[in-house]
Amino acid sequence: ADARLECGVRWTVSGVRVEVPPTPNNLALLAEPSSDSGTIGDGITKSTTVGITGRADPGDRITFLRQGTTIPTSPSTVVTSTNGTFSATLQLLANQTNQLTTIATNDLGMSSPVSAALAITVDTVAPSAPTVVLTSPDTGASSTDRVTSALPVFGVTSSPDSTVTVSATRGGLPYSLGGTTSFPGTGSQAVHSPSSIAGSLPDGVWQFRFVASDAAGNESSAVTSSVTLDTVSPVTPTIQLTGGGTTTTDTTPSFSGTAEAGSLVELRSGSTVIVSTTASVSGSYSITAPTLAIGNYSFTVNSTDTAGNQSMSTDINFTVQVSGSPSDDIADAVEVEFGTEYTVGGETTESGERSCAGNGGSVWFTWIANRSSLVELNTFGSSYDTVLSVYLRSGVSPTTVNSGELQSCNDDSGGLQSRIQFSAIEGQLYYIQVRQFRGSAPGTLKINLD
Q1: Phi, psi of 404, deg, nearest 5
Q2: HEC profile for the chain?
Q3: pTM (whole model) above 0.85
Q4: From the CB of residue 97, how many other CB atoms can be counted at a distance below 10 Å?
């Protein structure tokens, strides 16, 4: 007799038992990365070979269908275990959604209704590799060598359906950045700072690796970005006039010293860069200033390494004098030639040096008196405001002036020029000081004996 068979209902027809098995349920993708790559439980995977589990009556044979068509399984015969579970390995179609259903068949050959569908999306296409650019300053001698003192910051662009993961090595060895090292793609550039994850980064040669992945677990090719981080200041440079000393008659003086090998060495006046050079591999340098006027100067050198770290030397104070000018220092005083026009400028005042007026630079002469009489010296015909003094020294190779040895001193006796009188003793050595009333500007000096 004909009969409508209902799920899980037993019938007896003409003495024959008829039993329809219950519909399989709880179909699920096996919760293992080999089957459910990416996020477990989201129904999206990159695997075309997957494991499927479910529940049915013990002993029932399970048939799998994909889009309503029976598909092979591994093992070829799937039988529900005594605890009511079953599992099988299936081949799915790539890059589409697979609708999987099952039918249970009991030992009487009776089949259950088709189960509810399990939708599994198989995606085997990897996302595009992210675009990575260094957005933090590349400090130092080059803006493109990626040797920098600035903590690296990157601009990362990746597709909106991807997640970017960052990893790092330092000196070729893996380095844990700690914290969250993944961020979602937005389709537009996002700012990423590894130091914001790690808190700080030590100096070294860094390589950052950026990989985009999608929901199925497909990964893009890696994009690497290398940065050498150097935050240590170079060694303090030194500076001196080439040949030593603090006075030169060279109006384009040269300077030499030491600095970090390969660093940029800048000759500076205050904050103004005058000229620059590069320190040699041995750490030495030589640099020549452009033409300087007669006068006093204070220079420094600044050393900048390839990463942009800087260090500054101490100041060098020096004087540029015209060649042939009289001596700036009393110990080097030259014999006076009365009536001769001398070129002066840029002189300084020695420690302890005295005068009856003014505070400018001074020059020194010697004179051995050729008579014993009252003599007059003056600076008439000079081009600047002079202060004229004569000293009688008792020592040899003098270095300072004692006020008790002063014979005569005058500031302005003839306009801005000076005139003094004193009683000279034949054969006596006298020291003549001519001081600028203020400063040490270039000019001409004439000393006359009457």
Answers
A1: -70, -15
A2: CCCCCCCCCEEEECCEEEECCCCCEEEEECCCCCCCCCCCCCCEECCCEEEEEEECCCCCEEEEEECCEECCCECCCEECCCCCEEEEEEECCCCEEEEEEEEEECCCCCECCCCCCEEEEECCCCCCCCEEEECCCCCCCCCCCCEECCCCCEEEECCCCCEEEEEEEECCEEECCCCCCEEECCCCCEEECHHHHHCCCCCEEEEEEEEEECCCCCECCCEEEEEEECCCCCCCCCCEECCCCCEECCCCCEEEEECCCCCEEEEEECCEEEEEEECCCCCEEEEECCCCCCEEEEEEEEEECCCCCEEECCCEEEEECCCCCCECCHHHCEECCCCCEEEECCCCCCCCCCCCCCCCCEEEEEEECCCCEEEEEECCCCCCCEEEEEEECCCCCCCCCCHHHEEEEECCCECCECEEEEEECCCCEEEEEEEECCCCCCEEEECEEC
A3: no
A4: 14
User: What is the reported pLDDT for 1?
Assistant: 36
Q: Of all residues in the chain, what percent carry a pLDDT higher than 90?
A: 67
The predicted pLDDT at position 332 comes to 78
| Burial class (CB within 10 angstroms; exposed 0-12, middle 13-18, buried 19+) of 402 | middle
Main-chain dihedrals φ then ψ at residue 302, nearest 5 degrees: -115, 130
Integer Cα distance of 287 and 237 in angstroms: 13
* Distance between CA atoms of residues 291 and 276, nearest Å: 15
Contact 266, 304 (CB under 8 A): yes
Q: Determine the Cα–Cα distance for residues 387 and 410; give it in Å rounded to an integer.
A: 6
Residue 213's nearest CA partner among 177, 182, 189, 175 is 182
Burial tier of 295 (Cβ tally within 10 Å: 0-12, 13-18, 19+): middle
User: Would you say 90 and 71 are in contact if contact means Cβ atoms under 8 Å apart?
Assistant: yes
List Cβ neighbours of 196 (8 Å cut-off, separation of 6 or more).
Answer: none
Which amino acid, one-letter code, is at 371?
R
Q: Which two tokens stand for residue 71?
A: 């598909």
pLDDT at 5: 40
Which pair of tokens denotes residue 112?
């259950």
Beta-bridge mates of residue 169: 174, 207
The letter for the amino acid at 435 is R
301 burial type by CB count under 10 A (0-12 exposed, 13-18 middle, 19+ buried): buried
Scan for tokens 């300087």, then name that residue: 292
Rounded to whole angstroms, the Cα distance separating 406 from 404 reads 6
- Regions of the chain short of the pLDDT cut 50: 1-7, 397
Q: Which two tokens stand for residue 87?
A: 């599992």
| Residue pointed to by tokens 């220079």 | 299
The count of C-alpha atoms lying within 13 angstroms of the C-alpha of 285, restricted to the half-sphere facing its C-beta, is 27
